[in-house]
Write a structure and sequence with these properties.
alpha+beta, six-stranded mixed β-sheet, globular
Length: 316
């Protein structure tokens, strides 16, 4: 896809502000949509709108661009909900490769930002209405005031406050409460890779909580479980059965940071083709939720994978 940076003839007065805020705009769109491809499409549409706009009348380019991206995402999310009603099997967000968070003075804020892009949080936000999700993302993730959100969404401030209250209560009731300590996740990932590489059923089961649930998103494009799987024995046997398929013998499992957390990517021919994300029980550190994204149309966010194997990774 073309981006503003690669459009011939793009004027510097348009390109400069858009480029400066592009990361923010993508972050807003991705958290709104849970889709890398859709977020990039929204940014492309936002660029076209910005390039055509009377920029001399725009006092705050950042606010203008965020407003544009938010409303484009809101429109796309509203239409996408009807499509997802007929989606084949469980729907999961598109995985996004993310770098380790930098060390900054406000470490708590960085941790909170990482949580809002986690697969678990994106699944929770999927249950919000499109308007609730827009308000939640702008208010709780990016800290916009009610007045700013009301202006961006062309809603009354009182309506925005009520919507924010509903969305916050909904998310807090379902908010993921899992262990996210990097060292712990790294150790679990290392042991998981080693267990899968050796086809060790008992070793895999030791990493899973008894009540573990697994979801796999194939979208009807590839074979995947169409219903959630429950229980350590069931999930472990299913997972090793998937990896034992002849078509996956050339696949390797490697460690990568996906959606802000240490996770696992499936690699074939040097290309990351699937992602496995998981949540850990904060008490015993075992896996309580496991999500496998194998839909070939939803792995664009893995395109930047550069190969970061960890001890224990090997060919399957």
């Amino acid at each position: 896809m073309s981006t503003a940076e690669h459009i011939p003839g793009a004027s510097s007065d348009a390109l400069g502000p858009f480029t400066a805020h592009r990361r923010l705009l993508f972050d807003v769109a991705y958290r709104m949509l849970g889709s890398v491809v859709d977020a990039e499409d929204v940014l492309q549409d936002a660029w076209l709108s910005w390039d055509r706009a009377d920029r001399s009348a725009v006092l705050n380019p950042r606010a203008y661009l965020v407003r544009t991206v938010t409303n484009l995402s809101l429109n796309r999310l509203t239409s996408a909900r009807a499509t997802r009603e007929t989606y084949i099997g469980p729907w999961l967000p598109e995985p996004l490769l993310t770098e380790a968070l930098p060390t900054v003075p406000d470490g708590a804020h960085e941790a909170e930002m990482a949580e809002t892009v986690s697969t678990a949080m994106l699944v929770v936000m999927e249950s919000l209405s499109p308007l609730e999700r827009a308000v939640f993302v702008l208010r709780e993730v990016f800290g916009y005031s009610y007045a700013e959100i009301a202006e961006a969404l062309d809603r009354a401030e009182a309506t925005v406050r009520q919507t924010a209250h509903r969305a916050r209560a909904h998310v807090q009731a379902r908010r993921p409460r899992f262990a996210t300590e990097p060292g712990q996740r790294g150790e679990v990932t290392r042991r998981f890779l080693a267990a899968c590489a050796g086809g060790d059923l008992n070793a895999v089961m030791e990493l899973l909580a008894p009540e573990v649930t697994a979801w796999s998103d194939g979208g009807g494009k590839v074979t995947a479980a169409r219903r959630p799987l429950h229980g350590a024995d069931h999930v472990a046997r299913w997972l090793l059965g998937v990896l034992a398929k002849p078509s996956l013998q050339a696949v390797t499992l490697e460690s990568a940071r996906v959606n802000g957390e240490e996770s696992v990517v499936f690699v074939y021919g040097g290309v990351a083709c699937a992602a496995l994300t998981y949540d850990l029980d904060p008490v015993d550190g075992r896996v309580v939720n496991l999500r496998l994204q194998v839909n070939p149309e939803k792995v664009a966010g893995l395109a930047g994978w550069a190969g970061r194997p960890v001890d224990g990774a090997s060919g399957m």
